[in-house]
Every structure is written in structure tokens, then in C-alpha cells.
Amino acid sequence: MKKIAIIGGGIIGMTLANYLDREQFEITVFDSGKNQATGASAGIISPWLSKRRNKKWYALARDGASFFEQLVTDFNLHESIYEKCGSLFLRSSKALQELEQLALERRKTAPEIGEIRRLRPEETEKKLPLLKAAESLYISGGARLDGKAYLEHLRARAEAKGIHIIKTEARVRRRRHDWEVASTQESLFVDELVLTPGPALKSLLEQLGYSAAVSPQKGQLLSFDTSFETGEWPVAFLDGEADLIPFQEGRLLLGATHENEAAWDLSPTQEAFEQLTKGVQPFLKEDFFTKTAYNYRVGTRAYTPDFAPFFGPIEGEAGLIVASGLGSSGLTTGPYIAYLLAQYLNSTQRQWEMGIYTKDLKNYIKAKNASK
Ligand SMILES: Cc1cc2nc3c(=O)[nH]c(=O)nc-3n(C[C@H](O)[C@H](O)[C@H](O)COP(=O)(O)OP(=O)(O)OC[C@H]3O[C@@H](n4cnc5c(N)ncnc54)[C@H](O)[C@@H]3O)c2cc1C
Hints:
372 residues; alpha+beta; FAD/NAD(P)-binding domain; six-stranded mixed sheet; D-Amino Acid Oxidase, Chain A, domain 2; 27% strand; globular
């Protein structure tokens, strides 16, 4: 049996561990949990009306969102973890008209968008009663994923299957015929090494003589526990700085900031509170969020110069696979990326052609020593 180590137990790493073939692999996941994005995330799965022009990203995000149907079945995800709750877009009339056209166009290749409906002001208010009466666009396919609950669920499944999870930071080293993974708890030699550590990929690849064009970005959001009956409320994309993400049992998230300069910093800031509460204010019937107790969630996203993810085997390296740079949409794309990597690793042919989803890895990763 081959030995495989996955470094990074966020959404990619844990999903991959659960999709790998246990008959072929002895699997160990190293996860320090430090600066994790998945557990801090907002949870919106609704990529279709994004105005981003990157076609590869859109194809990946669209197929990633559609993959959730299989993910729910494969991992038996309860609706407290993943739920199709619909998305609401609040914009000017002209912008809503454009969005509606875009939705109709994109639904031709993404039937998951579901129902597309312009809502009158009173209908918007009925869908999400905290909002002022205003025109909106509703699509029924939008969903929310509780990143933290998803990881807990997948960790339990992985452990039940005998996958070894080590909650500590790991370092890596190339040996002649295999890879060494060392941590304070355990060191092992593996045939295959998968690096899914978010922005920490840069330092891990440096240990192997590569430079990676990936950087950390701080993200903050606010979490409110309320007594509202939020179970049926959709996710609301507000025009501006903040989005509103209702979960079950009264939990409301307001997020999120994108702070490049703050990089790895995890301290909650008053500026984030002000940015997010001011951003939501014009859309609310009354000033609810500045008068309600809240907690911060802070995580670190990985982003690349073109804000697109990269993933796959590194050419010329036997058994070295990476995935990072998922940015603001990694809950949407992460499970599908993990599934594609698992398909590759589980197969005997080992063919990798992902040109429809990502640029070649060479655009993001370079050997420091030209002889590699
Ligand atoms: C505030 C916020 C809101 C977001 N909202 C959304 C959203 O609404 N929708 C959406 O689609 N996406 C959203 N995202 C983005 C999404 O959360 C990320 O893109 C995604 O979770 C990245 O997953 P990952 O597995 O690549 O990395 P991570 O989740 O960061 O996991 C990497 C793991 O590797 C571990 N690690 C790193 N180095 C080592 C090492 N040397 N040894 C051991 N362990 C290591 C880290 O501690 C971490 O646990 C949001 C992110 C943030 C921060």
C-alpha cells in the first residue's frame, strides 16, 4: 500500500482525504489549523452572477457549485451543513436588469441556478424581513455551506475510515525516492505528498526549492446569534461592502473584508466592524447590527496575481501535488478541486489535463534552481 501525506486540513485537504481510495493508500493529514480560511468563511455558494471575466475561473466555480449535489450524497451532508437557500441581489433597477439577463444566459450551461425572478419591494422584504422594501433579483440555486461544520463532519468520517489526522505543523524534505514529512508529533516517509495549506504553500515549497506566486489576505466577518427565524432566509448580495448570510437557528453573518496588507494578521479590528456595519446599513429597515452582540471570525485566504486558483501535480516531481490560491470563492471550488485531485491519484493512468479550469502550474510555481 502506498503512503500519502496531505499537508493542510482545510476544505481541499479534508475533502481529498475522504475521496482517496483506502484500498490503495495509507493516508495521513497534517493540519495545524493556524490561519485557516475554511473555518472562518462566510459560506456563500453562488458564483453564477459574478462579473469576473476569467473564463477558466468561471468554469471551475460553475462546475464546483454544481458538484455540491454529488458531495451532499457522497458525504451525507445534513442541511445544517449545506443548504440551498436561494440568493437575493440588491441593486439599482438597471443593474438588476443586466443581472437578470446574465442569469438567463448562464442558466443555459448552469441549470443549478434554478428559478430566476425579479422581486417587487414587498416580496424582497418578505423573503428577508431585516431588509427594507426594495427591488431585487432572486435565484433559487444559491446555497450556504457552514465551513467549520463541514470540516468537523469530514474529520469524523476520515477518522472512522482509519485516516490518521495529526494536528500540528509539518515541514517537508525531498529524499531520493520519497518525501519526508516532519512534525513535533510525528515524522514519516511517504510516496506521495499533497500540499493543500492555503497561502502557507509558499513556505512549504521553499523547503523543496520552489517559489510560489501565492500571498496571504486577511478576511474578517461578524457573526450574530439572534432570535430570528432565519431557516428560510436567502443569502443577500448587497450592493457595496457587505453581504448578509443567514444560517439556521438565528445565526447571521456579515462579511467579509479583503485586506491584502494585513496578510497573516488575525486580530479583529474596529475598522472591519465599521466597514461591514456601514455597508449593510442602507439596506436595513432599522439599525440592527450595531445594537446586537457579535463575534469576529478572522481567517487568511490565499490569492495569486491573477486571483485564480492553481492545482495539480508538479511536472518532473514524482508524487508532488499542490492546490492553493482559492481566494474568495474557495468554499465553492475547493470540494471539486479535491475531487479532481482524488480522481487523478486513485487512477492508474495518472493523466492530468485541466486547461479548462486553470492555467499551467508553471505560471504560479517556479524552480529556484534552473536545473530542476
Ligand atoms: C472571511 C472569509 C470569508 C470567506 N467567504 C467565502 C464564501 O462566502 N464563499 C466561498 O466560496 N469562499 C469563501 N472564502 C474563501 C474560502 O474560505 C477559502 O478559499 C477556502 O476555505 C480555502 O481552502 P483551503 O483548503 O485551500 O485552505 P484553508 O482552509 O486555509 O486550509 C489550509 C489548512 O492548512 C493548514 N496548514 C498550513 N500550513 C501547514 C503546515 N505547514 N502544516 C500543517 N498544516 C498547515 C492551515 O492551518 C489550514 O488549516 C472566505 C474566506 C474568508 C477568510
